[in-house]
Amino acid sequence: MSERLPILFNKKPCYDIVFTQSFDELWDELKNLGCENRRICIVTDSKVDELYGKSVLEILQGKCLKASKYAFPHGEESKNLDTVREIYKFLIEEGFDRKDLLLALGGGVVGDTTGYVAATYLRGIDFVQVPTTLLSQADSSIGGKTGVDFDGYKNMVGAFKMPSLVYMNLSVLTTLDDRQFFSGFGEVMKHGLIKDALFYEWLIENMYEICERDLNVLQEMLIRSCTVKKLVVEKDPTELGERALLNFGHTIGHAIEKAKNFELFHGECVALGAVAAAYISWKREMLSMEEYYEIRDMFVPFYLPISVDGIEPEEILRLTKSDKKMESGKIKFVLLKKIGKAVIDNTVTDEEILAAINEINFSEEDAHA
Ligand code: GLY
Fold it and tell me: Cβ contacts of residue 245 below 8 Å, gap of 6+?
């Protein structure tokens, strides 16, 4: 059964997240946005295009004013201004005007890039998110953050642009390979850790069904996970304060992602960054030792890494400081007071960060221990 979660912006209804298990209701949802009289361009990547491009295009053909599709090469390397430029060119050639709409069909790279095009093409046109990875369903498709990487800096150029609808067909999660699927748990676990201890416990209790990809359990999981994100982004849509809590695990996580040249998935890096942030929280006596080890070890059944090899702690520290999560030259770090309660702290020292990086640094010594 499909369910929906409304998201408010400035206390007014802005868009709905629809949780369902097929594409059957997609056209009705688009019709509610007046799409019969609008052109729609599906923007996707080469991998998702092969799986779902044709069937989603067929849903639109003959129903909206014109249905087009643009696919760019799969991967983080495509998340840049060159791809944005190519999409602008395509939209101009296809005659898209201000009342037309983009449909982002794919994971975080597709959603963030398409959203940025929607924010800027003709000073802004509507867009719909149809996220196809667990990571984008749990996190990046909600809350209106859009953007691209720039000169190796992650998400350095972007805009806040709210989608008109987020349509989650959970059955697409069954075609993800294990690594891609489990990577999404970096963000799902994050939502429990920062705001909802009961959800965190629920994840542990339902681990078997989750790992088996039981769609009804995944639907409940995503509704609970998205509810945490909803409450945060509704209060602080443009990250003037509390929204920064959602960056838990991302400060060191982004640095590792860049140092490893995007070989590790985003959710894997978030898990590593979360272990490092929990370690600092333990050393500051905010978390107990038991809580720290519980947090660390709970990533393991979801096949997420808790240590990484081939990193230089000093390089990770340097990259941590070049990330955009800085305020007046200080790193805005997110720490845990307890499971389910995160706080923003800008007093974390280089020594604390280095100690945390060493904690997750897998060395030859560990291998032989
Ligand atoms: N992914 C963090 C945020 O949406 O703010």
Answer: 194, 195, 232, 334, 342, 343, 344
